[in-house]
Design a protein that fits this description.
The chain is mainly alpha-helical. 62% of the residues lie in helices and 0% in strands. The chain has a domain at 69-219.
Amino acid sequence: MADINIQRKKSSPSPWLLVLLAAVVLAVAAYFFLRPDSADEPAPAAATPEAAAPTPDTLAAAAAVDQATRRAAIDAIPQGDTTTGAADNTETTGALATLAASNPAAPDYALHGLQKLTGTLVALTDRDDLRDPAIGEQRDNLTSATARLGEPNASLRPGFVAAAGLIRAMQQKAYPELEAPANNLVSLAGQLSGRSATAAEQRQNQQFLTQAAAAVRVLSEPKN
């Protein structure tokens, strides 16, 4: 009896495996054809030494801008006119007294009062009989303290303190009868908060400006 050779039938590959292989081939081909060319991408900007650190010229320019801003702020303060005699002095001090007597709860009452007081006092320092190193130093302190009054949340207290210091320097130069009022102004200025949020603060601001206006009225009359 002859032997019959029986061979197993080989199984054919799964169609899903072929589909998966085809998808992989397509993905690889798409990556190489569609990826952006690195030569077309803009190169990142390199940091230069000039951008990393300011040069002396840049610092000088910034300082000049700051000085100009400060000068403009000082020039914006109302200045009294000292070239037309006692009549204008009386008008200026009268305006200061009128402002001091107005409603202390009004918006910017203290700010406007300090600005007018500063302008009047700075103008008085140009008088021949009040040109003195001590007065000049106090005047510079006042202009520095009030140079940035227009900025948000700027405190008025340094300006009040500097104004009182300038009044006392003028008193010590030529007005001995103002010694007690001048010292009292210095004391009042030290007690001010520089704000006007409460009724007590508003009363303190008005008290200071009223007494300062009275002192300025005397200072505006030159000594013979």
